[in-house]
Amino acid sequence: MDNSGFAKAFNDAVDICSSRFFAPIPAVWRIKRSLNIGSEKKLKESIKIIDDFAFEIIKSKAKQEQYDRIYPDWRNQDLLSRFMAKTSSEIEFDDEAKKRKFLRDIIISFILAGKDSTSTALTWFFWLVNGHPHCDRLILNEVATLDPTFTYDDLKSLNYLHAALSESLRLFPPVPINSRSTVSDDVWPDGTRVSKDWFADYSAYAMGRIDKVWGPDCREFKPERWLHGGDGVFKPSDQFKFPAFHCGPRTCLGKDMAFVQMKTIVVALMREFEIIAVDGGATAEKMMDPPYTLSLLLKMRGGFLVRLKKRRFNPN
């Protein structure tokens, strides 16, 4: 990725698109786009690099698909390969160019959804755990029960870790604000009327800090709120109360995969290292004014600086 320039182009494109949302005078970036100058020129150049990268992936997958017809190999059945196979069999396109553009959009969606969201979520998770030592101990106790060659079912048994990750996502959702455009006039269940082409925004970040929704302790990091009674079993929240992965028919398709990835990384890291936040982690004072920087993602301002200490860990 370093050699292709894709990673930098992708980050630049995301940052420039984010700046459009926060521009006090939208006409400015539109003028830049029409004149092809400044940030809009850079965006155009970045999109060209991103498109070329995506089309190369499509080209290589198409060659692999032809090879697999002759020599079937389950190891090549990754998510994109499966999607391309399904697209070829179930969706009709006017020409090959439209099919390639459709697959390009899918690739970019995959990358946009998974590239930074999981790492952002884990950044806040480790920052929060650092400020709550009792949570760290409880998570480590669960991790200690796992065999070194743990399975997917083993990860499902980590109720407290799942609760801690959910609580972290409640307080610091990777995508803090979502925006939708209405395609026609409508009336919502509560009687609110919206007109065609209106923007409807909601903030998962703000919802996680509303007393009416989560109670008077809504600003506190308490994984226990996700556990059922005294048996310690994880209990999911109402999806419309916890929209970190969206809701209803728009629920994120990668939700379960994201939890598996996060759990796997947490287990792998905590078995080997103590992760010590340089700033001391999420103290009560810092929780009132979190060190975030706002873009399309809720990233930590200045990054998450840590010290790693090798852990003398015997799971037995």
From TrEMBL:
Any single GO BP term: lipid metabolic process
Keyword Flavoprotein: no
Gene3D superfamilies: Cytochrome P450
Cofactor dependency: heme
MF GO annotations: heme binding; iron ion binding; monooxygenase activity; oxidoreductase activity, acting on paired donors, with incorporation or reduction of molecular oxygen
Pfam families listed in its UniProt record: p450
SUPFAM superfamilies: Cytochrome P450
Signal peptide span: none
InterPro entries in the cross-refs: Cyt_P450, Cyt_P450_CS, Cyt_P450_E_grp-IV, Cyt_P450_sf
Sequence similarity: Belongs to the cytochrome P450 family.
The protein, known as: Cytochrome P450
Source species: Gossypium anomalum
